[in-house]
Amino acid sequence: MMKRTDLRRLRGAARKTGRLLALPATLLWALAGTAAAYDSGDVAAVLAGTGRPGADLSHADLSGADLSGLNLRGANLAGANLLGARLEKTDLAGADLSRTRLKRAVFSEAVLDHAKLVDADGPYAFFGKASLKEADLSGSGFYRADFRGADLSGSWGRGARFQEASLDDTTLTGAVLRSANLYGTDGRRARAGKADFSDASLSGADWSGADLTDAVLQNATLRQTVLRGAVLQNVEWGTAVLDETRF
Predict the structure, then answer these.
(1) Separation CA 86–CA 192 (nearest Å)
(2) pLDDT digit string (tens) for 66-123?
(3) Burial of 209 (0-12, 13-18, 19+ CB in 10 A)
(4) Do the beta carbons of residue 173 and residue 196 sit within 8 Å?
(5) What angle, 0 to 180 degrees and rounded to 10, lies between the N-to-C axes of helices 40-47 and 6-17?
(6) DSSP string spanning 114-156?
(7) Are 64 and 45 within 8 A, CB to CB?
(8) Of 92, 163, 217, 233, which has the fewest CB atoms closer than 10 Å, so is most exposed?
(9) Strands in the chain per DSSP E
């Protein structure tokens, strides 16, 4: 639990490292007496550039922080603010990022295998070449987020919102994206064999050259979707809507 007396120590740690010049206003507000769940020692450590596996950073304001390359395996970041934060090559395997604010956060080449991102809000976030194997993205929002080259094989994204996101060259093998909103996505050359898109919307999307072998598209909506050159062997279409779909 953060205390008012922790403010001076955290400021000093941030100044020494140069990683963060000033604590965010919302963190100062929390330190001024508002109850918070995070651990002050863990917050100070990561702001100073020290890895902290299993750290409790829940509800902490880490907006704009540079946490690149840190070991945060199994960390609790539920409800944290990571607006514009940099987490390049950060190890977040098994971490809890539920309900986090991830707008414009950078996770390039980060490891988020088995991580929990339920109800996370990440418009314009960057996950280029990140690993999210078997991650839980249920109910999350990633409007115009960039997942190019990322590995989301076996991930769970029921009801997730990926409108206009870049999924070019992304691996989605065995992913479960039931009822997901993939409107206008760029899924060219995506590898989505055995993925489940039941009840999902892929209208206006371009999945040219994607591998959808054995994928499930039961009741999915693909109005004006581009599937030119896509591998569609053994796709389960069911009652999918294919109005003006281009093959």
Answers:
(1) 28
(2) 999 999 999 999 999 999 999 999 999 999 999 999 999 999 999 999 999 999 999 9
(3) middle
(4) no
(5) 20
(6) T-B-TT-B-TT-B-TT-B-TT-B-TT-B-TT-B-TT-B-TT-B
(7) no
(8) 233
(9) none
